Amino acid sequence: MLPGEVKDQGPARGGLVAAQARGAAARARWIKERLVVPGPQLAQAWGIRLEALATATASGEVVSIAIDGNVYFPKALLSVDRLTAVAICLALRHLRDTERLMFWLRDHGALGGTNPAAALSAGTSIDQVIALAQAWARARTEGGSLMDGRPDSMCA
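Above: the chain sequence. Below: its structure as tokens.
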């Protein structure tokens, strides 16, 4: 191999690099489309100090995601009162950040084809949203499929 020449890393390595690039592009799109908001904006909306938000984030009480060294929160949390958000987020606390974020961003069939914040605004009970969050978490931690006919399929 010549100096400066890049060794072929094979299809597995190439697939990983491509997946990482898709992930970075998705995170950039979340910011650009304002699907996620910075901590100070959420703290202000909830009327709490940024330090309190950081503590809640560290304990799993609030969903967050780090993007390029900054912490962002689902924009949906701006329209949900803090205690409701915490109750729902706690049901997701054992998941990876991206899985927790996707719960808030995605439209769920069990919520009439809307995202959790919109469903709550439309009158869906917090208990129903928490049950969906628990099913969403179970499907991801117990290896359940969202389409296998189990109760977890309500997440689809």
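The chain has a mean pLDDT of 85.
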